[in-house]
């Protein structure tokens, strides 16, 4: 069961890094128009959209990705707590 926990946390980590790269791409002109940018948009936008509906931008700054990353962090911590509670680790 430890390998399942490792697999799930690795997936969450990879997705978190993909979100960070996607967010940083907004700082560079036309970066999201590339094939990598379009791939990351297809992967990241469905997850970011509910956060954008709840959290409005503050001026020119969109803080919803920060909340999305916090939720992924809480999911990782929740998985660790669940696996330790069930004595699977």
- Determine the structural class based on helices, strands and strand pairing: mainly alpha
Q: Give unreliable regions as ranges.
A: none
* End-to-end gap: 7 Å
> Tell me about the biggest sheet?
none
Number of DSSP-assigned strands: 0
Summarize the structure.
This protein is mainly alpha-helical and 89 residues long. The protein contains 3 helices and no strands.
Layout of secondary structure:
Blueprint: H1 2-25, H2 35-54, H3 64-85
Description:
The chain has 89 residues and is an all-alpha fold. It contains three helices and no strands. α1 crosses α2, α1 packs antiparallel against α3 and α2 packs across α3. The radius of gyration is 15 Å and the shape is elongated. It starts with a helix and ends with a helix. The model has no long low-confidence stretch (mean pLDDT 93).
């Amino acid at each position: 069961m430890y390998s399942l926990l490792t697999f799930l946390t690795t997936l969450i980590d990879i997705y978190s890094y993909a979100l960070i790269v996607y967010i940083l791409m907004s700082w560079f002109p036309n970066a999201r128009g590339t094939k990598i940018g379009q791939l990351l948009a297809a992967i990241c936008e469905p997850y970011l959209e509910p956060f954008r509906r709840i959290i409005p931008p503050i001026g020119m700054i969109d803080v919803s990705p920060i909340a999305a990353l916090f939720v992924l962090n809480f999911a990782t911590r929740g998985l660790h707590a669940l696996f330790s509670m069930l004595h699977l680790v």
